[in-house]
Amino acid sequence: MLTLNFSPMKKVILPFLVAIVVMAVGYSVFRFTNSPEGQIVTAPLEQVRIAYKKSVPSFPIFVGIKQGYFAKYQLEVMPVVFESTNQMIEAVVRGDVDASAVGAAEPALAAEVQSPGHFKFYGQVQWTKDNFLDYVLVKNGSPITSIVGLKGKKVGVAPGGASVIYTQLFLRHFLNPQDVTIEQLDPKLLVQALAAGSVDAVVGNEPLGSIIVQKGVGKVLLERPYTDYVPILPELTGVGLLSTRFIEQHPVVAEKFIAAIQEAFEFGNTHPEDVKKLLPACCGMTTEIAALIPHLGVYSGPSAINRDVLSRFADFLYDQKLISTRLDTSSLVYP
Q: Does residue 314 share a domain with residue 260?
């Protein structure tokens, strides 16, 4: 039997060696991450849990990881995928995550009405006539050649009251919206519905349009239905949320996150072709479809959010009965 006998000197040395091991383990928090080539992160990484869904506006999170912007500020972003914008917002409100990727502004403002004070807006996406994501599409071979031709037809849209209201508002410029049946369908089913003929047209955002065209199912009937015909919407199409609790508990980390995501926004605005290479991994689409997407939107940080536009957008939602009360938006923008 092997017996270990420690001399007095060994009893002194052993705790010292244990301490060295503990220090070495502790040092492991100073670890490498996805950073620019040649850059070594030598400070402890702060974790930020961020909700996203597999859609185009989520790309800045993955740009920030790939380009090393988060690593630059000693941040480790932990993306958590959800099926919808509403689920992302609910996760922020519950405290399950610290932030959300950019998503539709309407459900964020509705959540603020229902459960105020849980988040602030750290960024936005806007649509313009030259940089948009919204289309009306019809099936290949359809006799419908204009929006007027949708009279008496069925149009598919994504779920949610906002999709219905926005579609009615744009249709109003061409015909009586009451003459069109609007059916809410899961985005995954819209392509199938158009191919099967159970709807005569679909209205939606990328990558829906590129998927329909790439699969040979349909063609574009009208570009920019929401951008051109829905007041206010293009000026504040989507917003990213940062948890108020996270801001209060980790103010310095919150500032670093804002700085890093701002750099990711700027990269996306100036390098759209490079961003498209990331879309298959982050947004659940094929390389072929990602390459077809013509536009990504225009992204900016909190300092660019126009507070007057935000207030008018909230009033617009109230007037359209999409939120139940008038909302004071004066404190919604970070910081």
A: yes
- Tens of pLDDT along 232-273? 899 999 999 999 999 999 999 999 999 999 999 999 999 999
The range of the structural domain enclosing residue 76 comes to 46-127+234-319
What's the CA gap between 246 and 85, in Å, rounded? 20
Of 197, 204, 211, residue with least CA distance to 154: 197
Q: Are 72 and 217 in contact (CB under 8 A)?
A: no
Q: Which residue has the tokens 């040649």?
A: 38
Strands 134-139 and 201-205: what pairing?
A: antiparallel
Non-local (6+) Cβ contacts of 128 within 8 A are 227, 234, 298
Which residue in 81, 62, 71, 88 sits closest to 259, CA to CA?
71
Distance from the first to the final alpha carbon of the chain? 67
What is the pLDDT at residue 42?
55
Residues 219 and 137 sit within 8 Å (Cβ to Cβ)? yes
